[in-house]
Amino acid sequence: MATKTCVLIIFTFISLLSLPLSQSVHFNIPAVFNFGDSNSDTGGLISAGIERLDPPNGQNYFHNPSGRYCDGRLIIDFLMDAMELPFLNAYLDSIGTPSFQKGCNFAAAGSTILPATATSVSPFSFGVQVSQFLRFKARVLELLAKGKKLSKYLPTEEFFDKGLYMFDIGQNDIAGAFYSKTFDQIVASFPLILTEFETGIKRLYDNGARNFWIHNTGPVGCLTQNVLRFGTDPLKLDELGCVSKHNQAARLFNLQLHALSKKLQGQYSDANVTYVDIYTIKSSLIANHTKYGFGQPIMACCGYGGPPLNYDFRISCGQTKILNGTSVTVKGCSDSSDYISWDGIHYTEAANQFVSSQILTGKYSDPPFSDKMPFLLKLKF
């Protein structure tokens, strides 16, 4: 683990040195409001009682399941650290007097941009998450108007205006569709999906949001689960061992999401709209995993079945079930920092740390980090 951290520090240092010397590390965001799926869920779906997580989830950082589908921290956790802000509590988390003073997380695992259906994993689709935020904001302002007693737990009205609104959602709209639709049908659905996303952004803008941070969708064809289900025919895999059609769909979706982001940049001249190319970062990690200190680019760390994928649809990380007449408990691998995939669907903390380090270079953002961005990356070197 120490070696992996050293590699990441060195690589990040080299990446930062490629930026203009006039920049330096400085984050000045008072609060963050996040919307998304399991890639940034810090406990939403678990708090709702829809699912549960058992060890070894959370083993590397929190040392217990934290509501995150990971062995430790997520990308959003590392970004919050970079902004010198506390980790975000889930909107539905009501235990332990959670503080929402520096923001709130509305993300929930399994969520989609399109409205949820009766068969959806999560009922908290993007439109619902936006509605939850509007309820949250209205209730916060109502409580603060009654006095300052709760001010140490709640964001001020100014925090809502100057806060950063982050989005990492859409992966489930694409990956989930492959179970019932053709490639052409999936691509044809993108305009509808993005119209729903734009509607949510507009609702937030109309309620004072001005700083938007939009992550695109990663290479879903490289997720262990999808390789097992859709990659049995080697002809359907690309040179990285990923499902070609899934990644092609993700790239097409991202092109349209990028176009929407450019549209919003022009439409909301008083706002900051940032598009972050997560796809390129994650693809580079998988393609160059050895260079970055990872041994396993696709095989799951916490899974069942052994090499080459160590994944079984019948049982998830931490679960105990009877399979073929035998009681089986899914445990983690001996060194999760050697793996990119934690449980076949989500990334390990080590992989999330790498992705975060690349986001913070500003090279994968449109526009790149500058004085007009929600926050400015500045070098201390």
From TrEMBL:
Signal peptide interval: 1-24
GO molecular function annotation: hydrolase activity, acting on ester bonds
Keywords recorded for this protein, A-Z: Glycoprotein, Hydrolase, Signal
Keyword Hydrolase: yes
Coiled-coil region(s): none
InterPro entries xref list: GDSL, SGNH_hydro_sf, SGNH_plant_lipase-like
Lineage: superkingdom: Eukaryota
Pfam families for the chain: Lipase_GDSL
Gene3D superfamilies (alphabetical): SGNH hydrolase
Family, similarity comment: Belongs to the 'GDSL' lipolytic enzyme family.
Protein name: GDSL esterase/lipase
Organism placement in taxonomy: Eukaryota, Viridiplantae, Streptophyta, Embryophyta, Tracheophyta
